[in-house]
Design brief:
The chain is of the alpha/beta class. The protein has a domain at about 25-170 and about 235-279: 3-Layer(aba) Sandwich (Rossmann fold), CATH 3.40.50. It has helices spanning about 1-10, 20-25, 25-40, 50-60, 80-85, 100-110, 145-160, 175, 190-195, 240-250; strands at about 70-75, 90-95, 115-120, 130-135, 160-175, 185-190, 200-210, 215-225, 225-235, 250-255, 270-279. Helix 4 crosses helix 5.
């Protein structure tokens, strides 16, 4: 028991283990995540509906979205952005590895007679001959990627964008990082049964890495028949560091905002958004 508790509370190296698919492809947790996506009043898997509507209005105006606009939505979930942008005439491709979310998005597109191409795939592995005017990665997905993965995805963005095409994504700021702290929590059925339909013992270890500006929420879920660990990594950014990563990938920064609805940039904001143009 002592050795097992030692393993549960062990502090790994930043981005040492990557288990993102466990959260989004597990039968139980993917259903939980979809229910969060579709709850229009909360900011969990997706932001609330009022914000998404404002965000789409701003995106459509900022990028002059219309019938000739091609958009790739990385981490599209159940198509909350893709659906709205397709209604404005855009040709949208959505990529997500949650089968449950993709199937829901396809049902909506079919019901509303929208021509949206949905791909059930890990977007790190996504390849296409199509070229896009705009790439979206919204809800701070970029923060969940390791430095190597971020380099790979930016290279992919550069490859699939048309000349002078743009990327819009959001990230967590250093102001948000300053609010995080190391903590260890134990609870029966942690997060109100989120992790399993059966009884389990849940351990949450939050580790803060000051030098790397990374936070890990490490969940250890102990069930009668199995024990599993899920690593939720988040990279926090200064604008200068994010700009450096984009410039190294062949992009120039066109604008900083406090969110993907175009709110003017404030360094005290917990998040910020960036528009980067392919050189």
């Amino acid at each position: 028991m002592f050795e097992e508790l030692e393993r549960i509370n062990e502090r790994p190296e930043p981005f040492e283990s990557y288990t993102a698919s466990d959260l989004w492809t597990d039968e139980h947790t993917s259903a939980q995540m979809l229910s969060f996506h579709l709850n229009e009043a909360i900011d969990v898997s997706s932001r609330n509906a009022e914000f998404i509507n404002r965000s789409v209005e701003w995106i459509a105006s900022r990028f002059n979205v219309g019938k000739d606009t091609t958009i790739a939505d990385f981490g599209c979930g159940p198509g909350l952005y893709a659906t709205r942008l397709a209604k404005r005439g855009a040709n949208v491709t959505g990529i997500d590895f949650s089968e449950r979310s993709i199937e829901y998005a396809k049902e909506v597109a079919a019901r509303e007679q929208l021509s949206i191409s949905y791909m059930k795939q890990n977007y790190l592995e996504f390849e296409t001959e199509d070229r896009f005017n705009l790439v979206l990665m919204i809800m701070c997905d970029f923060c969940a990627l390791s430095p190597r993965q971020r380099k790979l995805i930016l290279s992919k963005f550069h490859r699939i964008l048309k000349s002078r095409g743009s990327v819009l994504l959001d990230v967590y700021s250093l102001a948000a990082f300053d609010q995080r702290e190391d903590v260890a929590t134990y609870e029966v059925n942690l997060l109100n049964g989120f992790w399993s339909p059966y009884k389990y013992h849940g351990f949450l270890n939050t580790f803060k890495y000051d030098r790397e500006k990374v936070v890990l929420d490490k969940y250890t879920i102990v069930e009668a028949e199995r024990t599993r660990t899920v690593y939720n990594w988040l990279q926090y950014f200064a604008p200068e560091e994010l700009e450096r990563e984009f410039m190294e990938a062949g992009f120039s920064i066109e604008g900083l905002y406090s969110d993907v609805a175009g709110t003017p940039y404030d360094r005290k904001s917990n998040e910020f958004a960036v528009i980067a143009r392919r050189a």
